[in-house]
């Protein structure tokens, strides 16, 4: 099985990388299984199928592993977030439609998303009297075009005060080259604020996590810079 990153490997912006389609054709003709992995959670797998097609690349949704899909698959496997379960938990989403669509496809109950605009929190009194939804069992952070200080405060308060609330970070990148030389804040930009105020670290949906137990081959000492699969990756189907 051969894993391909997407941005910068198969395409740059709206342009296919030279000979990308031919490379995939040759690999498949030789019987190789090909999967496409991306920590970009701004699209669902269906959205990525459309993106691939627009660039002349034929790819099935089942061949795509995106951070949005990984987050949804993880929450679905916990069994705590079943849509329609009155006793179940819901995920608070600070992300766009790519994450929303994958959560819907996985049958995960969620609130928030792009359309959610909490009340303005202008004073310490506003923050101290903030009512929390006790159904929230996870906070999922992705590319959040509707980002606001109030959304960040609410999410961090949920993480700090709601017992067992999971913290899922779809993408830890803090900056994104959106068209040289322009650099914009990336989905990971709000994470330090949420992490520092809640004393929590988000579990990356696809990105490896540092591991003190990972060892170099043939060594009894931890490998410098070693990483292990994130909790989300380990629970994916």
TrEMBL record:
Location of region: Disordered: 179-237
Composition bias, Polar residues: 209-224
InterPro entries (UniProt xref): HAD-like_sf (IPR036412), HAD-SF_hydro_IIA (IPR006357), HAD_sf (IPR023214)
GO molecular function, one term: phosphatase activity
GO cellular component terms, A-Z: cytoplasm
PANTHER family given in the database record: 4-NITROPHENYLPHOSPHATASE-RELATED, FI11325P-RELATED
Protein's recorded name: Phosphoglycolate phosphatase
Native source organism of the sequence: Chlamydomonas leiostraca
Source organism phylogeny: Eukaryota, Viridiplantae, Chlorophyta, core chlorophytes, Chlorophyceae
């Amino acid at each position: 099985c051969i894993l391909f990153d997407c941005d910068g490997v198969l395409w740059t912006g709206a342009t296919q990388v030279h000979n990308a389609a031919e490379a995939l054709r040759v690999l498949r003709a030789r019987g190789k299984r090909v999967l496409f992995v991306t920590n970009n959670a701004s699209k669902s797998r269906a959205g990525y199928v459309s993106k691939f097609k627009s660039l002349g690349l034929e790819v099935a949704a089942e061949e795509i592993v995106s951070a949005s899909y990984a987050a949804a698959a993880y929450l679905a496997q916990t069994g705590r977030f079943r849509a329609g379960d009155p006793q179940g938990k819901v995920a608070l989403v600070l992300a766009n439609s790519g994450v929303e669509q994958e959560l819907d496809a996985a049958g995960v109950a969620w609130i928030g998303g792009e359309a959610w605009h909490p009340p303005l929190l202008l004073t310490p009194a506003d923050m101290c009297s903030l009512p929390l939804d006790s159904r929230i069992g996870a906070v999922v952070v992705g590319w959040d075009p509707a980002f606001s200080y109030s959304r960040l405060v609410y999410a961090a308060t949920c993480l700090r005060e709601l017992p067992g609330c999971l913290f899922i970070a779809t993408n830890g990148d803090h900056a994104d080259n959106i068209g040289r030389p322009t650099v914009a804040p990336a989905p990971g930009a709000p994470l330090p604020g949420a992490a520092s105020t809640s004393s929590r670290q988000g579990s990356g949906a696809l990105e490896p996590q540092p591991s003190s137990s990972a060892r170099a081959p043939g060594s009894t000492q931890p490998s410098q810079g070693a990483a292990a699969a994130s909790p989300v990756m380990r629970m994916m189907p």
